[in-house]
Specification:
Number of strands: 0
Largest sheet: none
Structural class: mainly alpha
Strand content: under 5%
Oligomer: single chain
Number of domains: 1
Length: about 150
Amino acid sequence: MKEFLSALAGGVFALLGSYFASRWQSKHQRSNLLHEARINLYVDLIAECRRREEWLDALCDSYQVMQRLGKGYEPAVPLNARIELLALKDTRTAWETLEPAHERLRLAVNESGFPTHEEDFLLPRMPEVVALRQRLAGLRDAIHQDLLEG
């Protein structure tokens, strides 16, 4: 009887150990996948910041580059859904403040009707330009902070 109880206890402990090890491994795999997806999102966001800065620079001072990039701005990849699902709070908040600033600049460009020739550029100190540059810097800072914390 002692051998039976000893074998039964050993089997139960082996099953429990296997179960908890499996749960632990599953949790860490999920955590690693989420971390990798978040890093990929942040890489795309940094690239998006660079593209917007290049477009903004062209809008302010380079008619030839502006002609190549176009007056309007379109993101390279749709990011809203990924940001909502994966981004940490600071990055999500920074993105949500970036979009309205970009929209205000777009409206200012459309209302003024420029750039139409080499002298028609947005002034780098226009409130809409300054606000968008600040929001881009804020997004970058939030991404770096989230990477340090996450």
